[in-house]
Records
---
Amino acid sequence: MTYEYLIAGLEDLREGQPMKLPYDSLLSLLEEQMTPADFRLVKLLRRKNDDPVILSLMEDDAVQDRFRETSLTEDDFRTQLLYEQGMHCRNRFVRAWFEFNLNLNNVMAAAVCQKHGYNPEKVIVGDNEVAQLLRKGGVAKNANLAAVLSELKDIVAVSEIQNLLDRERHIDALRWLWIDEYTRFSYFRVDNVLAYFLQASILHRWDDLTREQGERIFRQLLADMKKDVKF
């Protein structure tokens, strides 16, 4: 199904500028205008690692066996399950989006481990080619990794930003650019609606967030991470 009229009626989005349409109103509009099968893709994109679907998977004996064979925390393993769900989706754009974010987060985590001398195997999730290369050779001077991940240089540059708020903004800028590039030659398809939703979600994340508020929030996040993260 194509979505010419839906897309034509949506406001243009600009990175760094707030939306006029409230985020909840956008979700209601999409649910109303999209087919049930296509709107399930929106719900998958919104899913977090503490979603009831993921938590129910953790109750499965086979999944528990897989978890015990890893060195991941339960939170990281649930994140891995979430990525697996996304990367097995029938929609190619959704699969690519989840894999891009898997690679992005794994490279960021591996860069931190490399900087501080930690074992990356304890934080790398998933088993795609990028994850395997990161476990074997880390980030620096990894020619094989550079060959399979075109965004590697940009991700590493972002990982070196010291200010946490600025780093998060740059991460979202990478995501925004990836969405634009992936859908450059796609018109009025469900992919364009999903791309619009993801970029709207990025804008919503930063709505009404001043620099001072953001830095306070991230200081608290950092404090929580220091309590919880075990390398």
Note: The first helix runs from residue 4 to 9.
---
Amino acid sequence: MKDSFSIIDMRCRPPYKGFLYNGYPFGLYDTSDASLTAKFGLMTDFQYPLYLRNPRMALFLRDMDEAGVDYGVAPYRAAWGDPENNRGLIDNGDLLELMQEYPDRFIGVAGISPVYGGVDHAVEQIERFCVQGPMKGILMEPFFDRPNWFLNDAKLSYPLLEVCRAHHLPVLLTFGGFFGFPKEQLPPLVEALKAFPDVNFVLCHGGYPEAETVCHMAFMFNNLYISPDMYVIHTPASRVYIDAANYQLRDRICFGSACPGISMQTAVRHYMNCGIRKEVLGNILSGNAARLFNMTL
């Protein structure tokens, strides 16, 4: 399927330990609420991921292999300690075990929240798992954390961004998608882009549905990357992302599947046939992500 291209999936959630938790804001493998998957199931080229109902790593790895995905970026969710689900505070240990158990298949991105555990704990997590460990970046989720916060909060997020700046760590953000996208987060993102020009930010879910706005922001700020993942596929914003990938943002649009929302095979097949020019497809499928994570393929 890959047609000789290397492929890095910028957002995948393997069915492994902490990734399997249900309830808010997890629920990735909760088949009792499959409304989003059902909507994508209306696509004619949709392939239902077997590991959604049978969450086994063997099936997940088979999907990776059959799709031709060389590396899966596994961003861990850090919304722990939430009273709604009575969870205690934990760290990124499950993600570290995943990387150790399946070497050379996953790019670990530590889940970091300045809300759960406080800023000092978040800094310790970055130091432990990224600076001194094998993880290549961090994931933050301003909209998912309770209470919500903004990226330009000098007390909550700027100390974490300083650590990322000092150690050249990219910052992935869950930014858009079916949970709702708060437009209020856009101005604080602009302020953070200006305040930390040496930090690369990645918008997972591509800021959907504000595709035109975030693509223009990426055109204006060279430290903003966009990974629209499954929202490239048959959505009202598809053409915006594809045009950006072909031309102005060919060096900063990154492929992703957001599986288990959809299978990797569905995502790869669509990206390779949706109208992205072959001469830039290598950048989109892996080159931009490899540069972001300082990898040699």
Note: Residues 8-292 form a domain with the TIM Barrel fold (CATH 3.20.20.140).
---
Amino acid sequence: MLDLVSAYENYLTKVKQASANTVASYMRDIRQFSQWLRESNSIDIVDASKLNIADYLAHLESDGRSGATVSRSLASLKNFYSYVVSTGFLEHTPIVDIHIDRGEKKPPQILTGREIELLLSQPVCVDAKGYRDKAMLEVMYATGIRVTELIQLNVADVNLDLGVIKCTGAKKTRAIPLYPAALRALTAYMENVRNSMIADMDEQALFVNVSGIRMSRQGFWKILKHYQASAHIEKEITPHTLRHSFAVHLLENGADLTSVQELMGHSDISSTQMYTHMINQKLKSVYAKCHPKA
């Protein structure tokens, strides 16, 4: 029932006012399930039974999807069917007593100092794209901002004289300093090439794509994967890898937890404490490997 799926998407956007990323995630899960139902059972999503849903989740697991991914898909479907029941189209949700073992949560991937140097050295500043890519990677590692925050930066958010950027997160705005190399890369991009890349002189976006409009999340992800490959880094790198590495490297070099929390825009310090635990685990591992009495 495509109309109900579309109506639910409109409900998430207009009524719940969910973020664009949340809506995209929910709708992707729902449409993938709907497609699987049509291809495997020739039935519509509103006619699915508890058994159909259980079979689909088992299919995801057998396809190698992680426990977290399967659990998220179940949550998306639960919310969708709750909405359908609220409209009166269904009397009861087909999702009853279905539970997923999320499995052990893996710690985030962290790059070593050497890997960071390799990655940041990949963009070659011989053309506009090279200057832009160099600036984006340096700013990401210098500030630890989220990829959404990076692509939402406007020219007005940059103060080159003070060497800071203004980052507006979900709940507050924070000013984050840039280390000298990042400031040089950003200055070179803004002063030498940005104006030649933008499609419209009224464009406010700091970082733009080859079409001259604001860079997308997907666009930055592709850029990052390209430089990961050229640096021959075997670890799986995502935009969040740079954010995690920023936090761990600051703490390893003596930064206090509260300052790192403020820089990262964490509302709860427990989110920042995760990195302290990672450092402690790393030290224990080094101790076990290197101490002669261990």
Note: The chain has twelve helices and three strands.
